[in-house]
Amino acid sequence: MQLLQNVNFDLKRVLKIGGITLVALILISLAVTLVSSTVKTIARRGGVSVMQSGGGDSFSLGNMAMEESAIAYDSAKGMALGAPTLSARNIAPIPPIDGGGTTGSDAEAYEVTQYRGMIETRNKDEACKALFDLKAKDYVIFEQANTYDRGCNVTFKVVRDRVDKVVVIVKSMDPKEFVENSHTIKSQVEDYTSEIGILQKKQAVIEDTLNRAMAAYDEITTLATQTRDAESLARVINSKIQTIERLTNERINISTQLDRLTRSKAEQLDKLDYTYFYLNVIENKYLDGQSIKDSWKAAIREFVRDVNKVAQDVSVNLVPFFLRVLQYLLYAFIILVIAKYAWHLAKRIWKGPATPQI
User: Fold this and answer.
1) 3-state DSSP helix/strand/coil percent for the chain, to nearest 5?
2) Cβ contacts of 65 within 8 Å, gap of 6 or more
3) Residues 92-149: tens digit of each pLDDT
4) Domain locations along the chain
5) How many CB atoms lie within 10 A of CB 172?
6) Between the CA of residue 51 and those of 45, 56, 59, 63, what are the distances in Å?
7) Which residues contact 209 (CB under 8 A, 6 or more apart)?
8) Chain segment 251-282, per-residue pLDDT in tens
9) Spatial separation of the C-alpha atoms in residues 163 and 201, rounded to whole Å
10) Fewer CB within 10 Å: N-end or C-end of the chain?
């Protein structure tokens, strides 16, 4: 404790030490911020470089284009026919809708085939034009066609006996992925046929009930009119109106279901006569000016954010930092004073009361 008593609490020296300490802390904070920002940037760009060298394709020009095309295709299919897109998320062949088996030996008579492909090209205009030119052929029916900045996608169906010609054309474009999917739709067709038959019988019953109810009400109305029973006539008319309304609503509901099922069955049977193609074209250039421009923009934005963060750390954020340092210095000073007087008190208690001199 003798050391504490010998400490010189000169105000100038304390302020000098505090100022040097504060400047040192600011410099250390600035250095740590710049180094951490640089390390993060290098690590992030290093991750992109690894992906580029490992995959053989440019991350910014390839994978980014594929994701952009997938997003564009997803938006287009939501507004159009709902045709699925070929992207990194669903590159595998889509399984049949009905995962169960079929009965009988005629399942192959209901077999349908679909082709899905992704074409990477250096010139998307030329590749898309080659696909759009198929529209002029009488055996090709386009159902959807979309173009966007980095490519296009098309959905069309081809008469089954001309499928080989279209397959040759698509393969000549060297697609990166070209998947053939075949499955039977026998179960779906049989289900639609069964449901349509049930609804048709129900519709016939409702029509017959409605006709018989109308005839019965007419007879009752005639009888009530002849007997001049106004009350009974009013009840008969009211009941007739309610019955007609109820049966008419049921007839409309059944007709709506029949139309929907008939249309769905026709769409399934249409697949027996045609083969569907879902093709996606992606532009993947070795030197893409737009991608380079976007990367520079991103790098400049990140640089501005880093500089802004450093400027805030050495200006606005410096005030609360200084207050925190001042707070801890005050705590340290208070503890030091308390420790000093506690030490003196402990020494007095340890030595005990002074012995009086005789």
Assistant:
1) 70, 15, 20
2) 150, 151, 282, 283, 284
3) 444 444 455 666 666 777 888 899 999 998 888 899 999 999 999 999 999 999 998 8
4) 62-185+273-285, 188-271
5) 9
6) 10, 8, 7, 10
7) 247
8) 888 888 888 988 888 888 888 889 999 999 99
9) 40
10) C
**Beta strand 274-283 with 177-184: parallel, antiparallel or unpaired?**
unpaired
Measure the CA–CA gap between 122 and 337, rounded to whole angstroms.
77
Q: In this structure, what token pair is assigned to residue 350?
A: 């340890």
Ramachandran assignment for 288, one of left (phi > 0), alpha (psi -120 to 50 degrees), beta (any other): beta
Structure tokens at 151: 């490519």
With a CB cutoff of 8 Å and minimum separation 6, the contacts of 155 are 80, 81, 83, 142, 143, 144, 145, 276, 277, 278, 279
d(CA 81, CA 73): 11
* CA atoms within 13 Å, Cβ hemisphere of 315: 6
* CA 240 – CA 247 distance, rounded (Å): 11
Distance CA 47, CA 88 (A): 19
The burial class, CB within 10 Å (0-12 / 13-18 / 19+), for 280 is buried
Q: Are 156 and 274 in contact (CB under 8 A)?
A: no
* Residue 229 structure tokens: 């029973």
